[in-house]
Design brief:
2 domains, nine-stranded mixed beta sheet, short-chain carboxylesterase activity, Protein ABHD15, Rossmann fold, phosphoprotein, monoacylglycerol lipase activity, alpha/beta, globular
């Protein structure tokens, strides 16, 4: 514990000493970086106002919404997306505080019209600490504020192989809850929150729970094996993109509350698990809509190149500190000397899942395949074409953990896949997005929940229009059928589970509390 506190003190001293120099040296290059991120569109592709109808074979268009401080919140979406042909308008659009990049669709137009929060993010002035990406990241990673009125009641769930994960149900109050009472008749939506892959509960997660409770959600945090105080009952850790445990946890939530919709939110490297789950399950994911806050998309290259050195060493030390509690148990399947002497995130991940231990066993079923084989099974975007629900990705251009936007953001995914929406801000760091005067509801959680509300309303409007057309005998139109049918099916129906949930689980056993 003393070593961790010492490392934290060194980290704060380095940030305090390097931030003024980095702001002074980088003050002149920031607009150029913003202009390079959004190159001019190819000839023949125009920017389409959201109010105009779309043709079926419309080329992909990057829709940019620019916040207008002088406009009211009700008209911010329409005023911010007006097209312009002058060069001065193109330059100001590149410097926009917020940009929504997606493929034109009926849902995209609906979001631009009804999600005023998307265009309400105000960039901090240069003299403010909020203009520093490192300080924004540190602010979002630490558990501030300390007076957060959210407490948790934990359910331990035993998986089919004997491992244990936990679900922390958030509740408002001044004292921790010893036991959570659930009712199968409860229809309040469930907000499933997946923290980062290192198991750190950040301020962003606490704020998501707090804002979710205010808006009538039931927030629940998914903790992987050995994370956040979850006991390690088997010598097996969850691989980076293996959604098996998450799939069983979602089945448990649906079994307990079949009348509730599920909305999933992930942050940072935890988005790899959520994207893997949505890709593998497709239209049977039980999820109505999903959001990823500061996700890491190209994870193999991220582990190989690593984030900035300051964030790299902070993540590496934190993961080693958590694994040190299980050094004796992991020694049967992992070379612990190699594990704890690793000097990079790649070396640590490779020692955990790609090498055999002293007894010839490994934490990974395909350890013999090596590093590339491991990422063939765990890359988050491996089944991205099978995702059948709307996914909002909130990212920042100055993210110090993810890296440069041009090399790390798959813009072609958002411009060609109608299920993915990229909300790109000019600043905000990694999972920070702190704005002046944000109050009790920060911009990131507020934009995420507004996306969920607008998506649900859109599906309800489309369903009513479809039913009205059937009553008139007109049938449903062909345009947009695949998107609406696949997405609504996850909201309205309960698809058959791939396994018999009653044969695997016995929810009354002592490990669930």
């Amino acid at each position: 514990m003393l070593e961790l506190l010492g490392a934290l003190c060194v980290l704060l001293l380095l940030v305090a000493s390097l931030w003024p120099a980095s702001r002074f040296l980088g003050s002149g290059s920031r607009p150029a970086a913003a202009l390079q991120l959004c190159p001019p569109l190819p000839s023949g592709i125009s920017r389409l106002p959201p109010a105009l109808p779309l043709r079926e074979k419309e080329p992909p268009v990057a829709v940019r919404c620019v916040s207008d401080p002088s406009s009211s919140s009700s008209t911010a979406g329409a005023a911010a997306t007006s097209s312009s042909s002058s060069s001065s308008s193109s330059a100001s659009e590149s410097d926009a505080p917020v940009a929504l990049i997606c493929k034109p669709s009926a849902l995209a137009n609906y979001l631009l019209k009804h999600c005023a929060t998307f265009c309400s993010y105000a960039a901090a002035p240069r003299w403010s600490w909020r203009s520093s990406a490192l300080l924004q990241t540190a602010f979002g990673a630490c558990c501030w504020p300390s007076d957060c009125a959210v407490h948790f009641a934990r359910d331990h769930l035993q998986m089919s192989d004997g491992g244990i994960v936990s679900l922390d149900w958030a509740a408002a109050g001044s004292a921790p809850h010893r036991r959570r009472r659930t009712s199968s008749n409860c229809s309040s939506p469930v907000l499933l929150i997946i923290p980062n892959s290192f198991g750190k509960i950040t301020r962003n997660v606490l704020k998501l729970c707090e804002v979710g409770l205010i808006h009538g959600y039931q927030p629940v945090v998914f903790n992987r094996r050995s994370h956040n105080g979850t006991p390690l009952s088997t010598v097996k850790l969850q691989q980076f993109g293996d959604p098996a445990d998450l799939r069983e946890a979602v089945c448990y939530i649906r079994y307990r509350q079949p009348a509730s919709r599920i909305y999933a939110v992930s942050e940072s490297t935890g988005s790899g698990l959520l994207l893997s789950y949505l890709g593998e399950c497709g239209s049977s994911s039980y999820v109505t809509a999903a959001a990823c806050i500061s996700p890491i998309f190209r994870c193999q290259s991220w582990f190989e190149s690593g984030p900035s050195w300051l964030c790299h060493w902070a993540l590496l030390l934190y993961q080693k500190f958590n694994l040190s509690r299980y050094k004796t148990a992991l020694g049967e399947v992992v070379h612990t000397d190699t594990l704890f002497s690793s000097c990079s995130l790649r070396a640590l991940e490779e020692a955990l899942f790609c090498h055999s231990g002293l007894k010839g066993d490994s934490l990974s079923a395909g350890a013999g395949g090596g590093w590339d084989s491991y990422w063939e099974r765990n890359e988050p975007l491996r089944d991205v074409d099978e995702v059948a629900v709307p996914v909002l990705c909130v990212c920042s251009q100055d993210d110090p953990v993810r890296g440069g936007a041009q090399a790390t953001l798959p813009l072609e995914l958002f411009e060609n896949n109608p299920h993915f929406f990229l909300l790109l801000t000019s600043c905000g760091g990694h999972c920070g997005f702190s704005a002046p005067g944000e109050g009790a509801e920060p911009w990131g959680p507020r934009a995420t929940l507004e996306f969920f509300r607008a998506t649900t309303d859109f599906f309800a409007v489309e369903e009513r229009a479809k039913l009205a057309a059937r009553r008139r005998g007109l049938g449903s139109t062909a345009g947009g059928r695949a998107f609406r049918d696949r997405s609504v099916s996850t909201c309205k129906r309960l698809p058959a589970c791939a396994h018999n949930i009653h044969a695997i689980y016995s929810w009354q056993r002592s490990y669930t509390r």
